[in-house]
Amino acid sequence: MRTMKDVHDETCAVACCAEIIGAKWTALLVHDLSEGPRRFSELEHSCSGISPRTLSERLRLLEQEGIVLRRSYSETPPRVEYELTDKGASLLPIIKAMSDFGHAWLRSRRTPPARSRPRAVRSRGAAARSASARCFPGVRSR
């Protein structure tokens, strides 16, 4: 028996969630804000590669969705901080699951695959050439 909808539209819960946190940078911003209020420049620094325009757009969208609260302080120079609302904090279990999955994924990529048969014994020169080829692919040894 199928429990999912035939079409993922605006009434689909997964599509709704993906619409919010699926945009590039959004999950990282929520993750960064999970540690407390952050200034624009701190978020810009932690999300290396994000343009100020994109960061501003993402923060504005998250504010409109009620996920992020923007606080302005009338100081000289003006100070603005962003923090998660209760609604934003409710996304943290999803971000935690993404983090757990990411850690497991990275570990599995670092672990070499198990060999099904024993390696052939090579001379010392062949082993050195093989190691060199792994470290510098595309460069031929003499």
Beta-strand content estimate: 5-15%
- Give the H and E element order: HHEHHEEHHH
Low-confidence stretches: 127-142
Structural class: mainly alpha
Cα(first) to Cα(last) distance is 63 Å
Q: What attributes characterize this protein structure?
A:
three-stranded antiparallel sheet; mainly alpha; disordered C terminus; 142 residues; 7 helices; 51% helix
What does this structure look like?
With 142 residues, the chain is mainly alpha-helical. The protein has seven helices and three strands, in the order H-H-E-H-H-E-E-H-H-H. It has helices at 13-21, 26-33, 40-46, 52-64, 86-89, 92-110, 124-135; strands at residues 38-39, 68-73, 79-84. A three-stranded antiparallel β-sheet has the order 1-3-2. Strand 2 (68-73) and strand 3 (79-84) form a beta hairpin. It is extended and about 65 Å long. The termini are far apart.
Topology, please?
Blueprint: H1 13-21, H2 26-33, E1 38-39, H3 40-46, H4 52-64, E2 68-73, E3 79-84, H5 86-89, H6 92-110, H7 124-135
State the gist of this model.
With 142 residues, this protein is mainly alpha-helical. Helix content is 51%, strand content 10%. The protein has a 3-stranded antiparallel sheet.
